[in-house]
Amino acid sequence: MQVLEKARYFTQTLVPVPGAVPYPPLAAPSSLRLQTRIVSLTHNNVTYAALGFLVHWWDAHPLPAAGLTPPAYDDADKYGRVSAWGYAEVLDSTLPEGGPQKGDFVFGYLPLATLAQDVEFKLDEEVPGHLTATSAYRAQLMPFYNHYTAVARDSDAARQLRAAVTEKQGGAVVAVDDGIGFDSLYRLLFECGHLVTKYMFDAQNPVHPGLGPDAPSTQPWTREMADLTGATVVLLAPASKTALGMAYEMRKKRAKKNVDGSDGGPKRVVGAAGEGSRDFVQETGLYDVTVSTTETPDAEFLKAKMGVDVGAGDKVVLIDCGGRAGAGERWAAAFRTLCAPGRFVMVGIGSEAGEHSPADVLKRFAPKEEDKGERKQEKGVPWYIMVNTGDLRERAAARDGRRTVFKDAEAAFAEFKREGVPGFKVRWGQGMEAVAEGWERLGKGTTRPEEGMAFLL
Q: I need a surface site. Which of 33, 62, 77, 162 has the fewest CB within 10 A?
């Protein structure tokens, strides 16, 4: 298993746990014994490590029970295990009929390890094939990360997964179908873009995206803010998986009409990229315009490069999916100066990748002096909001029903996957050593925007 130093999470060790196998019989009721088979690494995994102490991401997959973790790494205050999205094989099951059984696969939030883990689950009575992790140690984890889906036994994905596992157990270097890797890399990050576009930016009945139950009463999210009609949407970190999925959904939304016959989506979708990713961003074809974040937008730049006329009252929506080198703050400051009150909205989704101490993280999330008491308002008009995908999904489900929200997201992702991302390719690795190399690449910043790292374990 991979073990990280929580305070310096790019410091990793692959730790053997020989005492864990052979596994004892699974005795706990309503449980699955899961072994990670397919996972991916993106900058989101770095976020899970950086903010893990704040939102309990370290709790998802704790260090193994006393006596199994080597003494040098059994201090849970210092060491932990980061998680990733992907497919796990069910090694054993005590779930009732209708739930996954031995030999099946599930998709969800998994440990970076070949060591199996026992997790208690409750079947979703409203949405067949969905289940929720209920183990006590995961009680403080947001529902989004406790949600899993079963892979239908007769599906192409199940057949491909079974074949890959069988070949690997035979000692082969396996050529896994790229579609499986695409699922691991994009599925949950695409859902963020889907939920933001469909529910958060529903001008008729917007769903609040903020973190926690108090967010709707403390952070304004109005119909005016949610209205994308005629707006220019600017995405920072446009090569990120979240941004690519969102750009796809925004363009799809533009093709639809509002009930009054007006355009349902933004006038244009702009990718504001760093020089290292700009060529790939253009190649995807998902953005109407691609510009460089090295430039500071002024009125002339906006009109010439983006077609935005702030003097005529054009609306700009800046969505920060993790822009680097302070791009979010710089561009927001420029837009706030240029745009009339109510004609600029900033949405925070991702954070800049890198290694940050807990103290630095807390400082970043603390309100700045100029923002205290203003709730991110410009002349009394709110302009900023932070998205929490899990809370957005839960509020969307409360509005439209869980079955509708999940089925719509699955259908939208299936369409996105069929069309694919031009220029993008899955880069496969096999085994925990390959995972460690991938984590090192994230730490050094040597990943390529046109590549996604997926692994067979």
A: 77
Taking the C-alpha atoms of residue 304 and residue 301, their distance in angstroms, rounded to an integer, is 5
Tell me phi and psi for residue 345, to 5 degrees.
Answer: -130, 135
The phi and psi torsions of 56 (rounded to 5 degrees) equal: 65, 25
Tell me the per-residue pLDDT of 215-245, one tens digit each, with 9 for 90 and over: 888 889 999 999 999 999 999 999 999 999 9
Q: Do residues 441 and 453 make contact, with C-beta atoms less than 8 angstroms apart?
A: yes
Coil, strand or helix at 212: coil
149-191 pLDDT, tens digit each: 999 999 999 999 999 999 888 777 778 899 999 999 999 999 9
Quick check: 430 and 159 in contact, CB under 8 A? no
For 292, the 3-state DSSP assignment is strand
Instruction: Tell me if 415 is assigned to some domain.
Output: no
Distances (CA, A) of 429 to 37, 83, 171, 240, 400: 12, 17, 14, 20, 40
| CATH code of the domain in which 299 resides | 3.40.50.720
Which pairs with CB-CB distance under 8 Å and at least 24 residues apart come from 416-422? 416/186, 416/190, 416/245, 416/248, 416/249, 417/179, 417/182, 417/183, 417/186, 419/248, 420/182, 421/244, 421/284, 421/286, 422/283, 422/284, 422/285
Output the CA–CA distances (angstroms, integers) from residue 47 to 80, 222, 321, 382, in the order listed: 14, 28, 12, 27
Both tokens of 396, joined, read 């969307």
- In a shared domain, residues 384 and 440: no
CA atoms within 13 A on the CB side of 9: 25
Residue 448 lies in a domain: yes
* Residue 31: strand pairing partners: 120
Burial of residue 256 (CB within 10 Å: 0-12, 13-18, 19+) is exposed
Once rounded to an integer, what is the mean pLDDT over residues 430-447?
96
pLDDT at 366: 58
**Rounded distance, CA 39 to CA 395, Å?**
28
Task: Report residue 73 as tokens.
Answer: 């790494």
Higher per-residue confidence, 364 vs 33: 33
Amino acid at 26: L
In a domain, 290, yes or no: yes
Q: Full-prediction pTM beyond 0.85?
A: yes
CA-to-CA dists, residue 255 to 198, 241, 347, 357, 369, angstroms: 13, 22, 22, 44, 42
CATH code at 109? Answer: 3.90.180
* Structure-token pair, residue 261: 């016959």
Nearest C-alpha neighbor of 89 from the set 64, 53, 69, 114: 114
Tell me the residue range of the domain where 232 lies. 191-395
